[in-house]
Fold this sequence. Notes:
This protein is α/β, with parallel strands linked by helices. Helices cover 67% and strands 9% of the residues. It has helices at residues 56-71, 83-92, 108-141, 149-159, 164-186, 195-233, 236-242, 247-283, 289-299, 302-328, 334-366; strands at residues 4-9, 15-23, 43-54, 75-80.
Amino acid sequence: MTPRCEWHTDDAGSGRLMLSGNWTIAQTLPDVIAALPAALPASIPLDCNALEHWDSTLASQVLRLHQHCSAAGSSLQLNDAPEGLQRLLALATAVKAQTTLNEGVMSFGDTLRSLIKKPGDRCREFLQFFGDTLFALWQWVRGRSVIRDGDIAFWFEQAGVRAIPIVTLVSLLVGLILAFLGAVQLRQFGAQVYVANLVSIGMAREMGALMIAIIMSGRTGAAYAAQLGAMQANDEIDSLRTMGISPMELLVLPRMLAALMALPLLTIYADVVGMIGGSLIAITMDISPLQYLHQTRISIGMSAILIGLGKSVVFAFLIALAGCRYGLNAGRSSTAVGQATTEAVVSALVSVIVADSIINILLDRLGIGV
């Protein structure tokens, strides 16, 4: 039977859109929007009592009709529509469509309002996630968390043990660079022996923790965001919430604790490897290994080591926080997961640099470690 779409008005003055016939891909379908009156009522009932056979082509037409009515400020009523059609429309409208760059240009006012509103929304979302993280950590300290020790060990291996090769290479090269730059200046004054002071203090207080944080931001932070983002895209996180399991305790907390334990240990390891790298340059300046070791021992103090370790703990928290936050809040597509991973790395790097600057300023004002 030929598909038909007609607007009917009853005696009371209320109208309804009637669909009849076979609405299948084999038929030439009428334009459902063209059948609507010029002045749309607040509510548009869809009458499908005379509808015979239908397939996804009808669903696409009803979706167009729904979008047209929503844009005009009307609501489409599907009480008389087939149950399957109602479910398809509910599924199609569950998530708002993402507007691409080619789908219109925002006005200046819309752009300005978006720029003002977005930081506020992100700040509120960050504070909420930060509070949830602290609460999960407090629950773990009190022994009331569902976290398993095996999970912490697994993520510690991923974040710490498997990062040793890249940390070794970068730390050795950074130690070489620090020693070489210092040697260029110190050689002019015959004070080559103080290369050991430069490398040891620089690695222990600043470069060790900062270098490890930058490496782990691109390695561990990105991995956390990608893993949790993929779980979000596959609805695994929603499944955990449905079962009454907190994603903060099961997914975020093990990664956070692993990072908090791994980064200080990697920082100590990077400090040692960096000093060894500096000794390779010192040897070329006629400084014996024993002399370099003695100069390192008398120059480096416990305050520099503690400052570096304290920084590494702060950096670890910021990196894990950024990776897990963007991963859990990622969209449900591969593009959204990639975007979340990129934002996690950028956010972690910026947070680490800002935190390092603030810590150094506070230490200078307080006269600690000088």
